[in-house]
Amino acid sequence: MENTFFIIKPDGVRRSLVGSVLSRIERRGFTIEKLEMRQVTKEILDQHYADLVDRPFYPDIVTYMTTGPVVIGILRGSNVISSWRKMMGATDPADALPGTIRGDFAHSSDNGCVENIVHGSDCLESAEREIALWFGK
Ligand code: UDP
Ligand code: MG
Protein backbone atom coordinates (compact mmCIF):
# COMPACT_ATOMS: atom_id res chain seq x y z
CA MET A 1 0.00 0.00 0.00
CA GLU A 2 1.18 3.49 -0.79
CA ASN A 3 -0.12 7.06 -0.78
CA THR A 4 -0.17 9.66 -3.51
CA PHE A 5 -1.03 13.34 -3.63
CA PHE A 6 -3.57 14.73 -6.10
CA ILE A 7 -5.02 18.08 -7.10
CA ILE A 8 -8.19 18.86 -8.99
CA LYS A 9 -6.92 22.05 -10.61
CA PRO A 10 -8.90 25.33 -10.97
CA ASP A 11 -10.26 24.35 -14.41
CA GLY A 12 -11.64 21.12 -12.94
CA VAL A 13 -13.35 22.94 -10.07
CA ARG A 14 -14.65 25.77 -12.28
CA ARG A 15 -16.09 23.30 -14.77
CA SER A 16 -17.87 21.29 -12.03
CA LEU A 17 -15.77 18.18 -12.64
CA VAL A 18 -14.96 17.51 -8.96
CA GLY A 19 -17.71 14.90 -8.67
CA SER A 20 -16.71 13.18 -11.91
CA VAL A 21 -13.06 12.94 -10.87
CA LEU A 22 -13.85 11.71 -7.35
CA SER A 23 -16.32 9.22 -8.80
CA ARG A 24 -13.58 7.69 -10.96
CA ILE A 25 -11.32 7.40 -7.91
CA GLU A 26 -14.07 5.68 -5.92
CA ARG A 27 -15.04 3.36 -8.76
CA ARG A 28 -11.41 2.34 -9.10
CA GLY A 29 -11.43 1.44 -5.40
CA PHE A 30 -8.77 3.81 -4.10
CA THR A 31 -9.28 5.22 -0.63
CA ILE A 32 -9.59 9.00 -0.27
CA GLU A 33 -7.51 9.56 2.87
CA LYS A 34 -7.75 13.36 2.87
CA LEU A 35 -9.78 15.87 0.87
CA GLU A 36 -9.82 19.65 1.11
CA MET A 37 -10.66 22.72 -0.93
CA ARG A 38 -7.91 25.35 -0.97
CA GLN A 39 -6.92 28.62 -2.58
CA VAL A 40 -3.37 28.11 -3.81
CA THR A 41 -0.60 30.63 -3.14
CA LYS A 42 2.47 31.32 -5.28
CA GLU A 43 4.61 30.43 -2.27
CA ILE A 44 3.38 26.84 -2.14
CA LEU A 45 3.46 26.50 -5.94
CA ASP A 46 7.11 27.57 -6.02
CA GLN A 47 7.89 24.59 -3.79
CA HIS A 48 5.44 22.18 -5.39
CA TYR A 49 6.79 22.90 -8.89
CA ALA A 50 10.39 23.53 -7.76
CA ASP A 51 11.69 21.74 -10.86
CA LEU A 52 9.72 24.07 -13.17
CA VAL A 53 10.24 27.53 -11.62
CA ASP A 54 12.99 28.45 -14.09
CA ARG A 55 11.02 27.42 -17.17
CA PRO A 56 9.61 30.19 -19.42
CA PHE A 57 6.02 28.98 -18.96
CA TYR A 58 6.19 28.93 -15.15
CA PRO A 59 4.47 32.35 -14.70
CA ASP A 60 1.56 30.99 -16.77
CA ILE A 61 1.33 27.98 -14.44
CA VAL A 62 1.12 30.33 -11.43
CA THR A 63 -1.65 32.35 -13.11
CA TYR A 64 -3.53 29.17 -14.05
CA MET A 65 -3.23 27.52 -10.64
CA THR A 66 -4.27 30.65 -8.71
CA THR A 67 -7.33 31.60 -10.82
CA GLY A 68 -9.67 29.79 -8.43
CA PRO A 69 -9.88 27.20 -5.70
CA VAL A 70 -8.49 23.70 -6.08
CA VAL A 71 -9.35 20.43 -4.38
CA ILE A 72 -6.37 18.61 -2.91
CA GLY A 73 -6.22 15.16 -1.42
CA ILE A 74 -4.37 12.00 -0.59
CA LEU A 75 -5.19 8.66 -2.20
CA ARG A 76 -4.23 5.31 -0.73
CA GLY A 77 -4.02 1.97 -2.47
CA SER A 78 -1.86 -0.64 -4.08
CA ASN A 79 0.32 0.95 -6.79
CA VAL A 80 -1.80 4.08 -6.50
CA ILE A 81 1.02 6.41 -7.60
CA SER A 82 1.40 4.95 -11.09
CA SER A 83 -2.28 3.95 -11.38
CA TRP A 84 -3.44 7.51 -10.68
CA ARG A 85 -0.96 8.82 -13.29
CA LYS A 86 -2.47 6.38 -15.80
CA MET A 87 -5.99 7.48 -14.87
CA MET A 88 -4.95 11.13 -15.43
CA GLY A 89 -3.47 10.52 -18.89
CA ALA A 90 -0.70 12.39 -20.70
CA THR A 91 0.29 15.89 -19.54
CA ASP A 92 -0.83 17.48 -22.81
CA PRO A 93 -4.54 16.69 -23.23
CA ALA A 94 -3.94 16.53 -27.00
CA ASP A 95 -1.88 13.39 -26.33
CA ALA A 96 -4.13 11.97 -23.59
CA LEU A 97 -6.06 8.87 -24.57
CA PRO A 98 -9.86 8.68 -24.36
CA GLY A 99 -10.77 6.96 -21.10
CA THR A 100 -8.29 9.05 -19.13
CA ILE A 101 -9.39 12.11 -17.16
CA ARG A 102 -7.35 14.50 -19.31
CA GLY A 103 -8.39 12.64 -22.48
CA ASP A 104 -12.07 12.79 -21.62
CA PHE A 105 -12.38 16.23 -20.01
CA ALA A 106 -9.69 18.49 -21.51
CA HIS A 107 -8.34 19.57 -24.87
CA SER A 108 -5.10 21.27 -25.81
CA SER A 109 -4.97 24.99 -25.14
CA ASP A 110 -2.93 27.58 -26.99
CA ASN A 111 -2.44 30.09 -24.19
CA GLY A 112 1.04 28.89 -23.24
CA CYS A 113 0.03 26.82 -20.27
CA VAL A 114 -1.44 23.35 -20.29
CA GLU A 115 -4.79 23.29 -18.46
CA ASN A 116 -5.26 19.62 -17.73
CA ILE A 117 -7.72 19.22 -14.83
CA VAL A 118 -5.61 17.13 -12.44
CA HIS A 119 -2.22 16.62 -10.82
CA GLY A 120 -0.68 13.47 -9.41
CA SER A 121 2.69 12.78 -7.82
CA ASP A 122 5.09 11.12 -10.27
CA CYS A 123 7.01 8.83 -7.86
CA LEU A 124 7.20 7.78 -4.19
CA GLU A 125 9.70 10.51 -3.33
CA SER A 126 7.48 13.20 -4.93
CA ALA A 127 4.39 11.82 -3.18
CA GLU A 128 6.05 12.02 0.24
CA ARG A 129 7.42 15.48 -0.47
CA GLU A 130 4.11 16.84 -1.80
CA ILE A 131 2.02 15.34 1.02
CA ALA A 132 4.35 16.94 3.58
CA LEU A 133 4.26 20.27 1.72
CA TRP A 134 0.45 20.50 1.39
CA PHE A 135 -0.71 18.72 4.52
CA GLY A 136 2.28 18.87 6.88
CA LYS A 137 4.06 15.92 8.42
N1 UDP B 1 2.99 22.57 -17.99
C1 UDP B 1 2.81 23.48 -19.00
N2 UDP B 1 3.63 23.44 -20.09
C2 UDP B 1 4.60 22.51 -20.23
C3 UDP B 1 4.81 21.59 -19.20
C4 UDP B 1 3.98 21.63 -18.08
O1 UDP B 1 1.92 24.30 -18.91
O2 UDP B 1 5.32 22.50 -21.26
C5 UDP B 1 2.12 22.60 -16.79
C6 UDP B 1 0.94 21.60 -16.90
O3 UDP B 1 -0.19 22.15 -16.26
C7 UDP B 1 1.50 20.40 -16.16
C8 UDP B 1 2.31 21.08 -15.04
O4 UDP B 1 2.87 22.25 -15.66
O5 UDP B 1 0.47 19.56 -15.67
C9 UDP B 1 3.40 20.22 -14.45
O6 UDP B 1 4.21 19.71 -15.49
P1 UDP B 1 4.71 18.19 -15.46
O7 UDP B 1 5.70 18.04 -16.56
O8 UDP B 1 5.12 17.81 -14.09
O9 UDP B 1 3.39 17.38 -15.92
P2 UDP B 1 2.39 16.44 -15.08
O10 UDP B 1 3.19 15.73 -14.04
O11 UDP B 1 1.34 17.35 -14.50
O12 UDP B 1 1.78 15.51 -16.08
MG1 MG C 1 4.58 16.41 -12.66
Can you describe what's shown?
It comes from Pseudolactococcus laudensis. By secondary structure, the protein is of the alpha+beta class. The protein has one domain (2-135): 2-Layer Sandwich (Alpha-Beta Plaits). Helices cover 42% and strands 19% of the residues. It contains 7 helices and 4 strands; from the N terminus they run βααβααβααβα. The protein has helices spanning 10-14, 18-28, 42-48, 58-65, 80-88, 101-105, 124-135; strands at residues 2-8, 31-38, 70-77, 118-120. The protein has a 4-stranded antiparallel sheet. It binds uridine-5'-diphosphate and magnesium ion (MG). Uridine-5'-diphosphate (UDP) is lined by residues 57, 61, 91, 113-114, 116, 119, 122.
List the helices and strands and how they pair.
Layout: E1 2-8, H1 10-14, H2 18-28, E2 31-38, H3 42-48, H4 58-65, E3 70-77, H5 80-88, H6 101-105, E4 118-120, H7 124-135
What is the rounded distance between the termini? Answer: 18 Å
Which architecture would the CATH scheme give at its second level? 2-Layer Sandwich
Strand order of the largest sheet: 2-3-1-4
Query: Given the structure, what is the number of helices?
Result: 7
Oligomer: single chain
- Main β-sheet: number of strands, strand sense, barrel status? 4 strands, antiparallel
Computed structural class: alpha+beta
> What is CATH's topology name?
Alpha-Beta Plaits
Say which CATH homologous superfamily is assigned. Answer: Nucleoside diphosphate kinase-like domain
Mean pLDDT: 96
Ligands in the model, by name, code or SMILES, are: uridine-5'-diphosphate, magnesium ion
Q: Order of SSEs, N→C? A: EHHEHHEHHEH
- Please indicate the count of domains: 1
Strand content: 15-25%
CATH class: Alpha Beta
Count the beta strands: 4
Helix residue percentage: 40-55%
Low-confidence stretches: none
GO molecular function, one term: metal ion binding
InterPro entries: NDK-like_dom (IPR034907), NDK-like_dom_sf (IPR036850), Nucleoside_diP_kinase (IPR001564)
Pfam families: NDK (PF00334)
Subcellular location: Cytoplasm
